[in-house]
Design goal:
It is built from 5 helices and 8 strands; from the N terminus they run ααβαββββββαβα. By secondary structure, the chain is of the alpha/beta class.
Length: 256
Amino acid sequence: MNFMSAIISLPRTRAFAWVTLAMLVGVTVTVRLGFWQLSRADEKQTRHNTIMAQQAAPELTTSQLLGNPVLFQQTHQRVALEGQWLPQHTVYLENRVMNGQAGFYVLTPLQLDAGTRVLVQRGWVPRHRQDRTLLPPIETPLGLVRLQGRLAPPPLPLLSLGANDTAAPASGPLNIRQNLDLDAYAAETGATLVATILQTDPTSEGLLREWPEISAGVEKNLAYAFQWFALAALQLMLYLWFQFVKPYRHARRSSL
């Protein structure tokens, strides 16, 4: 019995129409979701390429930034700064991980001129195993310092169980915090922060600076796209098997 003629001759019920409609809807939706994930991956890759291009651009100097403050908004742009540390306002952000070890991000304001201040994420120090307030010594040079870094977003906030995690400890000289609200911190220190800098100099001053590389993060979207396309293909194959191949095999056995 010819396959096509056998399939055409099979009686069809209303259920067949509903199953066909459900298959078409399911395949359409999953295919569109797959292409949406591909578009998200393209967007991330484009954004990543832009970041890489900014990092490859020449460094901005302190004089260039002060002469054109709009340049402070160019996130990921490399900079070479000169200024003076304000160690009295140093903040330690706890529960930050580097190389699989828990510790602190150390942030200190850098005064560029009389009216311009940036917050520098200077590096990372490990946490004491028994007492979180026992911090390893770090050096904060006095006078004019020079550093290299890049304009960066503020440190990502961590999940907090309380509302006062941005406040300083009630006692003791250490300024250990879970997260940092930049507006509140600027008001606390008495000056506006025009940017956040991620220092990229080699390890020094007791601070580790092995920051993770910026990745495009497209792998997850590509994996999701594959899953959606695979689901669409599975729906189509199941439809063909139960609505065409299996009835054909049954009709062929019946004709023998």
